C-alpha cells in the first residue's frame, strides 16, 4: 500500500508536486505563528509569550523538515530536500558576502514596488497595533514573525520545491518556475511582478550555488526584520510611500534614489554570485 502511494506520487509532474509540497510547508509553517502573534496582541500584550512558543515551534518544525525525528524512513530524503548540508568554506564565505548587497537590493526593490502600485493602507494595521503595546513585546513579535517567514519560505520554496523540480529539469528552469510560483502566491499587483520575480530568482540562485538555504534564511530574516521594525517606527513615512503612485503623482526624489541603490547593489550582487559560482564549481 505504501509503495503504491509513493509510486502514484512520483507519477505526478515534478512542478505540481513542488507546488503542493511548497504550499503545505508554507501554510503549516506560517499560519500558527501569525495566529500566535495576533493572539498575543489581544491577550496579555505586555508579555511576549508568543515568542517562546513560536521559537519552540520553529525548532520542532525545522528539525522535522531537515530530517530529524520520525518518520525515520524518509529522514535522509527530508535532509536532502531541505538543503541543510554543510557548505564548503569558500562557498560559505561568498554566500554570506553575496547576501549583504542582495539584501540592500531587495529593500530598494520593495520600496520601489510600493511607489509603482497602489497598496491599501490596511497593510499597516498590524504595525499600528504593535505601536500600542510595550516596545519589548513589539520587537519580540516582529522577531518571531520575520524569523518564521524567512525560515519557512526558504525551506518551502528554495529548498523542497526547487529541489524537486531540479531533479527532473535543469536548475535554471527550477529556479525560474519557483520564482514565478512564489510571486503568484503573494497576490501582488501585476506591475510589481518583475521586481518580485527578480528578487525570488536571487534567493533561488543563491541556494543552488551555495547548496544550502541557510544563507537565504539568515538574510531573508534580516530583510523582513529591518523592514517591519522600520515600518513600525516610521508609520507616517510608510503611509506616504504607500499612497504615492509614480504613474499618478509622478517620480519623486525617493524613486530616483531607490533606482540608483537597486542598480548599484544589484550589480554588486551579480559579481558576488559569479564569484560564488566559481568557488563552488
Please explain how this structure is put together.
There is one protein chain. With 281 residues, this protein is mainly alpha-helical. It has one domain. It is built from 13 helices and no strands. The protein has helices at residues 2-11, 14-42, 49-65, 75-82, 89-116, 125-130, 135-166, 171-184, 193-210, 214-233, 235-243, 246-249, 253-280. α7 crosses α9. It starts with a helix and ends with a helix. The model has no long low-confidence stretch (mean pLDDT 90).
Instruction: Give the structural class.
Output: mainly alpha
Largest sheet: none
Count of DSSP H/I helices: 13
Oligomeric status of the shown chains?
Answer: single chain
Q: What order do the SSEs take from the amino end to the carboxyl end, as H and E?
A: HHHHHHHHHHHHH
Overall spatial form: globular
Name the poorly predicted regions: none
Gap between N and C termini: 42 Å
Q: How many discrete domains?
A: 1
User: Quick check: average pLDDT?
Assistant: 90
Strand content: under 5%
Work out the number of β strands: 0
Helix content: over 70%
Measured on Cα atoms, how large is the radius of gyration? 20 Å
Helices and strands, with pairings:
Blueprint: H1 2-11, H2 14-42, H3 49-65, H4 75-82, H5 89-116, H6 125-130, H7 135-166, H8 171-184, H9 193-210, H10 214-233, H11 235-243, H12 246-249, H13 253-280
Helix pairs in contact: 2-3, 2-7, 3-7, 4-7, 5-9, 5-10, 5-13, 7-8, 7-9, 7-10, 8-9, 9-13
